[in-house]
Amino acid sequence: MVTQTWLYDAILYIYALSLLFYFSDFVGPNRSAKRMGAGLLLFVWVLQTAYLGYNLAVHTSLSALSIGETLFLVSWLLVTISLIVNRFIRIELFVFIVNVFGFATLALNIFSKPGMSPTLAHWEINDELLFIHITLAAAGYAAFVVSAVFSGMHLFLHRKLKEKKWTQVMQRLPSLEKTDQYAMVAVVIGAPLLLLTITLGIVWISLEGDTSLFFDPKVINSWFVLLAYIFYLVQRLWMKAPGNRLAQWNLAAFAITFLNFVLANYYTTFHQWS
């Protein structure tokens, strides 16, 4: 069925992957990551352009365009602008931020479109949006777990080396430099995924029409979790904090994340998982 959302879901996932590469290039200049991000974003633009061209061909009058199609046009323009900036000016953070708005606008357009049919027959259309929200959140949480494990290894190695106690366990672990690097890479993956998760949550709340959910403790605490990991990156990139302090902060951020995930079942008005 033409109006089914599996194709739109694929576009959103490709869009999200593109943003991960752009964020990675912003954190640490990486030509391969930038090329991958630009290539995926260009693919999204091509799909959007084809869809937009089809709609303009179908509608004989621009006044016939719905608010949803107008949102799609806004999203297309944001992607177009970011591709132009990416081509002529190296401002990866600008491209990333602009496309977060483009991602949200595209999701709002897709899931507010009348007559959209979810991929699974027993789902509501908002369930489709919720599924993408949950999968991105799960991927982000998994990245934070990986990062916390490497930070734990880093602190273990740091303590043993400081005490000058060499063990066989230490021989089987990566170096201090590697554990620090791997922890950072996992945060670079998890932080933008969490941002996109929150973005889709905002879109879902907007479609539900219950603005009180914006002030739900789970939503507010998710912003604190994101800020904690952003501060981790700020310490690493601009404050040049030592590896052991970064590892300690990373574990503290993960503790906040874990409590936010587990306790959500008791203090939130939605997000219950049992």
TrEMBL record:
Which InterPro entries does the UniProt entry name for this protein? Cyt_c_assembly, YpjD/HemX
Listed transmembrane segments: 6-24, 36-54, 66-86, 93-111, 131-157, 182-207, 219-239, 251-268
Give the UniProt record's GO annotations in the biological process aspect: cytochrome complex assembly
Signal peptide: which range, if any? none
Q: Which UniProt keywords apply?
A: Membrane, Transmembrane, Transmembrane helix
DNA damage found in the keyword field: no
One GO MF term: heme binding
The record places domain Cytochrome c assembly protein at: 69-269
Q: Does the keyword Cell division apply?
A: no
Annotated protein name in UniProt: Cytochrome c assembly protein
Which organism is this entry from?
A: Paenibacillus mucilaginosus 3016
The opening ranks of the lineage are:
Bacteria, Bacillati, Bacillota, Bacilli, Bacillales
